[in-house]
Amino acid sequence: MTAAPVIRPLAYSDLPRVIAIERRAFPSPWSLAMFVLELSKPGGVCLAAAWGNGVAGYLVCSRYADVWHLMNLAVDPVSRRRGIAGALLSEMLERAGQSEQYTLEVRPSNAPAIALYERYGFRSSGTRRRYYRDTGEDALIMWRTREAAPAQGSQR
Fold first, then answer.
1. Which architecture characterizes domain 6-144 according to CATH?
2. pLDDT tens by residue, the chain, 156 residues
3. Is 117 among the catalytic positions?
């Protein structure tokens, strides 16, 4: 697998592979119903990273009022550190808009994800206490505002 991933809209037919990745990537994975709900919402950005013979990663981002909320981003553990998450984030920003406002929650213990989000202009702005039910861990709240958005092309 040396070529760049192909980023395309996430399809219902991708969900069996997405669920498999979700279960390997997270201690409290989303259910199939949660993915179906997000895919059924008009106006969201749901992406798949096609790599080799299947899906290696995915991203789900929904719009709430004037803010985009990055709900879920995962890469199959065997395909990590190959630029897939960055490719998904870049495509999300292209589709939803570079100058839009974005927010997300991430585990403070997930240093690689935090570093990735910071490269794309997200900044820490607080915590949600005991956000993760599986461990009681807080969530770090990150924002990418219009003012904090990096110059085009500086994410990589």
1. 3-Layer(aba) Sandwich (3.40)
2. 457 899 999 999 999 999 999 999 998 899 999 999 999 998 899 999 998 779 999 999 999 989 999 999 999 999 999 999 999 999 999 999 999 999 999 999 999 999 999 999 999 999 999 888 788 888 999 999 877 666 544 454
3. yes
Q: Which residues pair with 45 in a beta bridge?
A: 61
Instruction: Say if pTM beats, i.e. exceeds, 0.70.
Output: yes
Catalytic pick among 58, 102, 117, 120: 117
| Annotated active-site residue in 105, 118, 131, 137 | 105
**Closest to 70 in 3D by CA, of 52, 55, 51, 85:** 85
- Please state the domain extents for the chain: 6-144
The continuous run of DSSP H or E covering 66 comes out as none
Question: Is 105 a catalytic site residue?
Answer: yes
